[in-house]
Amino acid sequence: MSFPAVSERTGHGLTPTTLDGVTIRLYDTNARQVRDFVPLTPGCVSIYLCGATVQAAPHIGHIRSGLNFDIMQRWFRHRGYDVTFIRNVTDIDDKILRKAADQGRPWWSIGYENERAFSSGYDVLGCMPPTYEPRATGHVPEMIEMMRGLIENGHAYVAEGNVYFDVRSFPGYLELSNQELDNLRAAEGEVDTGKRDRRDFAMWKAVKPGEPSWETPWGRGRPGWHLECSAMAHKYLGGVFDIHGGGIDLIFPHHENEIAQSKAYGDEFARYWVHNAWVTMSGEKMSKSLGNSVLVSEMVQRWRPIVLRYYLGTPHYRSMIEYSEEALREAESAFARIEGFVQRVVEKAGHVEAAAEVPPAFAEAMNDDLGVPQALAVVHTTVRQGNSALTADDKETAVARLAEVRAMLGVLGLDPLDPHWTGADRGDDLHGVVDSLVQLVLEQRQSARSRKDYGTADAIRDQLVQAGLEIEDTPTGSRWTLRG
Ligand SMILES: Nc1ncnc2c1ncn2[C@@H]1O[C@H](COP(=O)(O)OP(=O)(O)OP(=O)(O)O)[C@@H](O)[C@H]1O
Ligand SMILES: [Zn+2]
Fold this sequence. Notes:
By secondary structure, the chain is of the alpha/beta class. It folds into 3 domains: about 10-295, HUPs (Rossmann fold), CATH 3.40.50.620; about 325-420, Four Helix Bundle (Hemerythrin (Met), subunit A) (Up-down Bundle), CATH 1.20.120; about 430-484, no CATH class. It has helices at about 60-80, 95-105, 105-125, 140-150, 225-235, 250-265, 295-300, 305-315, 325-350, 360-365, 370-390, 395-410, 420, 425, 430-450, 455-465, and strands at about 25-30, 35, 45-50, 80-85, 155-160, 160-165, 200-205, 220-225, 240-245, 270-275, 280, 285, 320, 470-475, 475-480. Helix 2 (about 95-105) packs across helix 3 (about 105-125), helix 5 packs across helix 6 and helix 9 (about 325-350) packs across helix 12 (about 395-410). It starts with about 25 loop residues before the first strand and ends with a strand. Bound molecules: adenosine-5'-triphosphate (ATP) and zinc ion (ZN).
């Protein structure tokens, strides 16, 4: 299976299809090229993203996936689309059951705990909540319905309480990953109890002693991972929808198996397949099972969440991100340049609303397969123009540039004045009160410094940090933000 790099992007058709006559183009893994995005329903886009298997707390790779699709969602919204975004939760799986057995805990307690950790991981990095976030175990009736249909039409069979998908019965199998069935070995990690062909995959697994199980017409058992997504996508988005997403590791077998089940069931299923590349460590996928993962909860102790978002969200979604502290430091200083500009203009001109439209060059970059790196270059250019205007005391131009910068940063989820980042969405009316109080304390610190009482000044700073604030000293004064 090959996954073309960004530079191999190919051309596209000519039919403008979106509301404003400008086409969004996306790399479709299935077509192996960039395609014009033609929505199923004009003005609407439906997206299904494979979400977390809640066996452990999220590492930054997991959240990168959520973040890439958050930016996609924001861009569609900016273009005026009505977005329906589904991100599921896989709350039953071998690893969850193994962990529960090892720790002597109920299986669901592992799932609930980690689901909360995922929710706060998405939230701390500013991902908008999905429209619906269905859990696998809440959809057993829908899975039974799908299995019934597939058994009836001859694409699935029951063997020793398991329900298997007959891969040879579905001619389109392996088209997404561009593989030949003849070259495929047995499905990985599966015991072939009663399989007709070792490559058949389990949709439903027969009950084992001590494991949770649900009643079905074919005996008790539990869902397989692939069936969950087919059943939930069908329930929330119908038989056909626009975009299916996930990390590149899911192309095979997970997405191939979803396609086989859903199409054999009679669904047209996803019209575009979009896959994000990984966060890697020494070239390998960051992964819980490989033990090379860095948790989001650890990272936000060391880095401001907005800097972490800049680091994870600004490389192209199809480029790998090799984890590096140096790159994080670079992200920190690049973001500081943007943030410094925003704050300088606000200090000079007061509140500035985001522009309704982003500059054309930014839009062109985003329309071209979500070209965030090129779009970000437009942000930096606009910041430079704004800074020159400030130096020339041209307030009007500086304000106009800030309005554009805010609009662009809003699409990337990086606008420092957004209530999510100012903390206003966590205590709306309290934000102003806290700001006045902190300013008061900062003034006391400043007067301690002026009288060269550095001990008191440092003690005040330490107390503010302890209270959960981040204090940054700049040539124009001290600024504060809430720590994640
Ligand atoms: N290192 C990574 N970089 C980018 N995306 C990732 C990474 N690891 C997982 N993902 C994506 O995150 C989403 C949720 O993944 P899931 O919970 O199934 O974890 P997983 O792939 O089993 O992780 P792990 O390998 O750490 O156990 C999927 O879309 C997956 O492709
Ligand atoms: Zn899935």
